[in-house]
Design brief:
Blueprint: H1 2-33, H2 45-67
């Protein structure tokens, strides 16, 4: 009988610990959600064109080296 009481007491302690951890996780989750930005970064068409031209030039250089 004493063993059952001890187990119930331990179960009560464990339940309190789980509730405490759940509260901590919830608090951390709320703090991070407002700090991050949503959506994608925007790049101008001119910027994309410059990157594309540079990449095409790199590939042309590689291809011309293989033919020689």
């Amino acid at each position: 009988m004493d063993l059952v009481k001890e187990l119930k007491r331990e179960m009560g302690i464990a339940e309190k610990r789980v509730k405490s951890l759940a509260a901590a996780i919830a608090a951390l989750g709320r703090g991070n959600s407002s700090n991050h930005k949503t959506g994608r970064r925007k790049m101008s068409a001119a910027g994309r064109a410059k990157i594309s031209a540079a990449q095409k030039a790199r590939w042309a250089k590689v291809r011309s080296g293989k033919k020689a």
